[in-house]
Amino acid sequence: MPDKITYRGTNSQGNSYDNRVDSSGNTGYHxxxxxxxxxxxxxxxxxxxxxxEPQRHMLYPDTDRQRLxxxxxxxxxxxxxxxxxxxxxxxxxxxx
Length: 96
Hints:
Largest sheet: 6 strands, antiparallel
Strand content: 25-35%
Oligomer: single chain
Radius of gyration: 13 Å
Strand order of the largest sheet: 1-2-3-4-5-6
């Protein structure tokens, strides 16, 4: 059964964010930017991201947590023009 999207939003730059939940209650979120970069935390625990370059990366739940943090920070630093407060607000809604 596909994930159910419980929240979806787009900021003034056109970057989008959504919350999702699967039939077992596992949650995840996806955010996608207009430059084709994205970061997905899937309901199965995997993490999938693309910095906008041709390569794509898949991280699994047991991946080193420091590397996962570096990915988060890298995505945020790469898009400093995005209003970080708004992103954090969306993430707070999704994770709270």
